[in-house]
Each structure stands twice: as structure tokens, then as C-alpha cells.
Amino acid sequence: MDVKTGLFYLFSAILLVSSFRVITARNPVHAVLFLVLSFFQASMIWMLLKAEFLSITLVLVYVGAVMVLFLFVVMMLDVKIEGMREGFWKHFPLAAVVGVLIVLEMSAVLMGGFHVVDDPKLTASVGHVGVPVSNTRELGLLLYTHYIYPLEVAAALLLVAMIAAIALTLRHRKDVKTIDPSQQVHVKSIDRLTVIKMAATQPALPQPPIEAPTLEQKA
């Protein structure tokens, strides 16, 4: 077994473990962090497959932007873990059926086997012999010509998801005290502290006069 095969098995094992922890972690923040680890391992596997552009894009877009947004949303929503566990067994049959279908589909794909092809030496778009293939250029030509409409639909869905996440974090809560920054800026120094002179609530009681001690008291 060469180094490339060993790295593939290492990244795949970490990917499977972290993906399993995404759905079994009780804390939503821990689940998001395990999902970030899964994306990193998938990026490394794409790097081994010589898909450098997809590997870097996965790290920059999903880990650097999408997952950071998810992490902030999960932390700001203040999710009650106890309430999420109440309907577990109620939805378990439907979840089990969906899980079995996914396993069957993945088994059908894996049983078909993988066909290893040699690295292409020519590009259909360039058409010159000896010109190396640029997967970034070929992916861009394919993405923005044949799949332009699915790309626009995906962009619209991501925009709606981003707006929904912002709307969820900006909900008004009665148990949180907030201060308007515009009011803080326009506050003057005279409005911050006001000295009020108040009368005493009770009058002072008269004190009895102090008598000087007599000679008998001194003796």
C-alpha cells in the first residue's frame, strides 16, 4: 500500500467518524464542529483525486462562510436541547425509513464498482496536443454554459436561506434588554448624571442636654 492509498483510508475513516458524530452529538454546537471536520476530510480526499479547485472551494465556501454562519445561528438561537428530544420516538419510524433508503442507494452505487481512468492529456475546449488540462477552466465552462439555470436557482435558495437565518436571529424577545446605539450617541453629559436635593424623610430628634458630673458622681 502506497502513501496515497494510506492517506485515502485515513481521511475516509475520520470522515465517517465525524459524520456519525454530526447526527449523534447532543450539543448542536458540537454537531456543527464535527460537520466542519467532515468538510475538511472531504476536501483532502478531493485533493487526492486531483480536484484542487473543488477542494479549495469546499474549504473557503462551506467551512469559511456557510458553516461559520450556521455556527453563529445555532449559538444565537439558544436551542433548548430538552425540547428537541421530546418527539424523538414519534419521528423515529419515518427517519428509519429514510435512513434505509439512503443506505440502499449508497449500496447500489458502491456495488457498481469504480472505474479508474487515466489522466486526460487533451482538452476538448482548447483542442491542441500537449496542452495540460485545467480542471478549473473546464469546470467553469461546464458550469456557466450547460448548468447556468440550476446555478441561478441554487444561488436564489442560498440567498433565501441567508435572509431567513438573519430574520431568526433578529427576533424580538421580552427577556432581553437592548439599548439603541443611536440614543447612546446623542446623549449629552448633562443627561447622564443629575443631582437632586431632597429633604429628609424624618425630622431629626432633639438630643437631651449632657449634664456635667457632680462631685458625688466623681467620688
- Helix content percent band: 55-70%
Strand residues, percent: under 5%
**Count of DSSP H/I helices:** 10
Structural category is: mainly alpha
User: How many strands, which pairing sense, and closed or not: the largest β-sheet?
Assistant: none
Tell me the CATH architecture of the domain at 1-78. Answer: Up-down Bundle
The end-to-end span amounts to 113 Å
Annotated CATH homologous superfamily of the domain at 1-78: NADH-ubiquinone/plastoquinone oxidoreductase chain 6, subunit NuoJ
As a whole number of angstroms, the C-alpha radius of gyration is 34 Å
DSSP summary, beta strand count: 0
Order of helices and strands: HHHHHHHHHH
| Overall mean confidence score, pLDDT | 79
The low-confidence parts are 121-127
Using the coordinates above, name the CATH class of the domain at 1-78: Mainly Alpha
> In one word, what is the shape?
elongated
In CATH terms, what is the fold-level topology of the domain at 1-78?
A: Four Helix Bundle (Hemerythrin (Met), subunit A)
Write the layout of secondary structure elements.
Blueprint: H1 3-24, H2 28-48, H3 52-77, H4 81-84, H5 88-111, H6 135-143, H7 148-169, H8 181-185, H9 189-192, H10 215-218
Helix pairs in contact: 1-2, 2-3, 3-7
